[in-house]
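Before any further analysis, we paired sequence with structure tokens, yielding the entry below:
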Amino acid sequence: MDTTIHVVFGSTGEYSDRSEWPVKAFRTEATAQELVLAATKSANEVFAARKRKYSYNVPKGANPHDPHMEMDYTGTRYYVVTVALEDR
């Protein structure tokens, strides 16, 4: 039975300095989009609270929705990629 999964990715940076990572996968797109909104809100709060805007150090666990969050001067963005899942 073929189906799809919806993978939430995080990203930061731009051009050759861009970094991307998988955060979590879901069976429904709506649930994945909920994580995108929650993780983005938390990332924006962390970004706004930084005293040094060009500091790339993010405290572990700063974003409860993404334990591996990275951040640079561009902040952190989240998006969903839908892919086929094959049961073999």
